[in-house]
């Protein structure tokens, strides 16, 4: 039986404004608890909200980048519910008239390009943060985050696997970073997602109830949770097991999702228009001015990298997945003209170290000019590729220029023929068996002898010259 997974996402992105949605409190991350709040964002009686113009501009900017239609008339609504981190007992959000409607993101899948449709993008304010661990049976609340402006991006259930949802999240994050409306730092809570999953049989005769998973704060956790739920829903259809419409959470320690509450018991939010705020009315001229200010987006940059630099599609896709990585590549390629060599180093050694250290491209500790210099030293024969990798690791550890490291550590490549010939003769004198193996047709012996010579020169021998001299001596 063919079974189709249906996945829809609700992604919350904190907007990169300096102040909150309805007051002047700072949005800076990491301040002491409850030091960035005021009577407005803590919901004191009698206070009035004032909308943040920059937050509305950023939301429009995001909607345009996501191919949405921008509403000329929208409004804010009260979403009523009580939770300890929501001091007003209601959240100011948008209900029936969101700021942005429609839209889409195109992703790459194993079966080719696929369009994921976006239902809406709306503005709302964030809630505070509850701290549960380390306080026994009690919890503490930090209202610093309460009132921080958010956009919520709601997709259609167009994704049919965790891999497709992951591709959508990666693309969405890149777009939001390119247009500079959110830093998308999941570790700081500025990008979070809720996931809705269910499955249907190919003939439509069986379907599972939708499961919602809330506040997944890393792409890795989201993908694992979706993979687990996909299997659980498929098994329910195969074994005709009853399912319920519920909210679940991801248990990282046990690698499974666990029930939180039944959605049948969910509260009626009693939405109604926010009485303290006038509707948001935007002119076409205002929207078009914002559209004109949009930078080159990932898909456009991807196509340009292929056309301008002659890069393979895969290279262009990896490099444009991050604005910082794409900018780093272009700055380096403006100095060192072999764009493919630059791409190879960025996708190889640079991303390797970034992944090992859980860093982002913005954390590369040396400027693009240093990487260009390193490649030039290889071309000039000053250092070998092997030594270059050692220099690179030292550059990453210290931020020093490659020339400084080469000089300090005496890493200049040995290209003096007489000096290398002495090394070759020493290696041959010490490895008579390898000479016999080579003459007997065992070509691997050559590789061993090269390795011994490299060991003697601490990797500094010019490899081309070394191979030439070894062959000449062996064939005498």
UniProtKB/TrEMBL annotation:
Entries under PROSITE patterns matching the protein: GATB (PS01234)
Enzyme class: ligase
Catalytic activity: L-aspartyl-tRNA(Asn) + L-glutamine + ATP + H2O = L-asparaginyl-tRNA(Asn) + L-glutamate + ADP + phosphate + 2 H(+); L-glutamyl-tRNA(Gln) + L-glutamine + ATP + H2O = L-glutaminyl-tRNA(Gln) + L-glutamate + ADP + phosphate + H(+)
Organism expressing this protein natively: Tepidanaerobacter syntrophicus
Example of a GO MF term: glutaminyl-tRNA synthase (glutamine-hydrolyzing) activity
Alphabetical list of NCBIfam families matching this protein: gatB (TIGR00133), PRK05477.1-2 (NF004012), PRK05477.1-4 (NF004014)
Protein name, entry field: Aspartyl/glutamyl-tRNA(Asn/Gln) amidotransferase subunit B
Asn/Gln amidotransferase domain span: 327-474
HAMAP family: GatB (MF_00121)
Tagged with keyword Nucleotide-binding: yes
């Amino acid at each position: 039986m063919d079974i189709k997974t249906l996945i829809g996402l609700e992604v919350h992105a904190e907007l990169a404004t300096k102040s909150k949605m309805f007051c002047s409190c700072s949005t800076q991350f990491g301040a002491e608890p409850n030091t960035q709040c005021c009577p407005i964002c803590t919901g004191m009686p009698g206070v009035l909200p004032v909308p943040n113009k920059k937050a509305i501009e950023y939301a429009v900017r995001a909607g345009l980048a996501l191919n949405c239609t921008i509403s000329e008339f929208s409004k804010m609504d009260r979403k009523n519910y009580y939770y300890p981190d929501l001091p007003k007992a209601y959240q100011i959000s948008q209900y029936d008239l969101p700021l942005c409607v429609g839209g889409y993101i195109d992703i790459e899948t194993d079966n080719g390009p696929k369009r994921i449709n976006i239902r809406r993008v709306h503005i709302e304010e964030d809630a505070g943060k509850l701290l549960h661990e380390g306080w026994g049976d009690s919890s503490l609340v930090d209202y610093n985050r309460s009132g921080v402006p958010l956009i919520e991006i709601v997709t259609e259930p167009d994704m049919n696997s965790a891999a497709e949802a992951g591709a959508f999240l990666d693309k969405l994050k890149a777009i939001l970073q390119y247009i500079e409306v959110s830093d998308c730092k999941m570790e700081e809570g500025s990008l979070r997602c809720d996931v809705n999953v269910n499955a249907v049989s190919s003939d439509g005769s069986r379907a599972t109830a939708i499961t919602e998973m809330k506040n997944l704060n890393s792409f890795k956790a989201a993908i694992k949770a979706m993979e687990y739920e996909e299997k659980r829903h498929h098994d329910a259809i195969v074994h005709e097991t009853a399912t319920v419409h519920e909210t679940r959470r991801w248990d990282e320690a046990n690698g499974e999702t666990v029930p939180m509450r039944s959605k049948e018991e969910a509260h009626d939010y009693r939405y109604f228009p926010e009485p303290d705020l006038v509707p948001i009315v935007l002119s076409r001229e205002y929207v078009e001015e914002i559209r004109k200010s949009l930078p080159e987006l990932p898909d456009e940059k991807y196509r340009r990298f292929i056309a301008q630099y002659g890069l393979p599609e895969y290279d262009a896709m990896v490099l444009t997945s991050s604005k910082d990585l794409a900018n780093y590549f272009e700055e380096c390629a403006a100095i060192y003209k072999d764009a493919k060599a630059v791409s190879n180093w960025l996708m190889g050694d640079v991303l390797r170290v970034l992944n090992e250290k859980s860093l982002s491209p913005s954390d590369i500790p040396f400027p693009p000019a240093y990487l260009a210099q390193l490649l030039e030293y290889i071309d000039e024969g000053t250092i070998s590729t092997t030594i270059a990798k050692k220099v690179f690791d030292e550059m990453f550890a210290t931020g020093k220029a490659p020339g400084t490291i080469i000089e300090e550590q005496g890493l200049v490549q040995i290209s003096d023929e007489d000096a290398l010939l002495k090394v070759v003769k020493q290696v041959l004198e010490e490895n008579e068996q390898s000479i016999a193996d080579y003459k007997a047709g065992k070509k691997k012996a050559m590789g061993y002898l090269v390795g011994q010579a490299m060991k003697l020169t601490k990797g500094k021998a010019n490899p081309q010259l070394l191979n030439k001299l070894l062959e000449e001596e062996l064939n005498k």
